[in-house]
Amino acid sequence: MSERTRKLAWAAVIVASATAISRVVGLGREVLTAGVYGVGADYNTFVSVSVVPNLIRQLFADAAISAAFVPVLTALLAAGDRERARRLTATLLGFMLAAVGAVCLVLILAATPVVRAIYPELTGTSHMATLAAQYLQILVPTVLVLALAGVMTGVLYADERFTMPAVVSIVWNLVIIAFMAVWHDAWGVYALAWGTLVGTVVELVLLGLAMRAAGEPIRVNFHFRDPYLRRVLALMVPITITLGILNFNALIDTYFAQFVSDHAAAEIGYSFRLYQLPQGIFAVTIGTVLFPSLSRFAAQHDMGRFRETLSTGVRQMVFVSLPFLAWFTILAVPVIRMVYQRGAFTAADTSEVAGALAMFALGLTFANVNIMFNRSFQSMQKPWLPLYVGLVNLALNALLDWILLGPLGVAGITLSTSIVSIFNMVLLVWLLRRQVGLLGGRGMARAAGAALLCALPLAAVSGGLWYALRGFADGGFLRLLVSVFAAVAGGGLVYLGIAKALKLEELSMVWRLLRRRGARPAASAD
What we know:
By secondary structure, this protein is mainly α.
């Protein structure tokens, strides 16, 4: 094994460990948030307002910068032109300071009219309007900080330094936890808002120190005619628009949530964080690992192997998603009760959040499969086709939110998301067939049917075990934890046992893919 291979292998271990720790600490942050703030009106306002800076952050930072900046920077370094790469970094930092800084300044100055325009019901009183505007003013600077952090992360990735980008999300979570633990009594939800801002600044400082330690100077210039800057920005456009559409859907949901109750957005937020767990652990991993193969076969015009790889990915997505669909519907109440119900988070809140989670779960499999289809279009360098579908989804999501929030409340908004995921999959399949021909739908359907045959006993066993243990679970948190774990583990063992008995190849394929993922460095999740 070469020195470089050993270095990357060790980096993979560090990144995987940091990602796992970050998820645990992040879950701890959510547990503390629920216990301290519950779904109160002030926290609901914070959740609603935070969607605005999150939308802008996704446009200018995170995946957009990584996907557009790193390839250009890496090419310059590979050509041996490190000084040119450093000038590009300085120019991109300058651009982010100017462009994102200007957007942030406008939002800070216009915070009150912005929140009144987006959330007229939520800001119906002067107190709530002031509260929403102040939350927005505190959170908006995180957009600029994260844009600068995204550039620094790109520099570290290009130098194959993965440790600090993986660690900073842990520190971010810990700073927020510290602020809530120390100041929530005196500051209320402001402790969460200020903790988010300070944690983000600490991220930037740590990344800057890592960049300096790597021998990379932190410089800024404003030479916006740099052709390499234009190349980076051109690569960012389709990614930015696609991410923007995804986050506009979140904005639409929180807009309609204000007409349900003064705690609906908070309930959606709590359920969505659990809904995202299987995506972050399994679905994104499968899409990431198979993406290079799809790209290679697309470049070689080998549509046979392209379709085979796509089919493999879809079947794996279905196989890993169906258990969570069953658990999040059958065990929604005990799962929410175990994770969130304590302190300010009441049994009534558990019931509402569980209903939202169950409706989210109905579309989980389709949402995960869509990750694979989107990767297929990206591998063919045709990212605009899913973008058109996303634009249609915006209108459909708004229409369904409007129709369903009346009879179903919060659950109607999350059901709308699930229906849109199904519609999105149908359109993507239709577009993909026009590009590459038949996709092997019969094989996918057979695999999905076999996985469903395994999932039905899982649901029965998990539901039966919880029914038998529900009285025992009322004896305190430890008993509840044991009961939920027994119900999940019992159903999971049945699922894996039947899959093995039926000799489903997806079982071994998923395991091999997860091991491949562990053998390569990757960006950590928040």
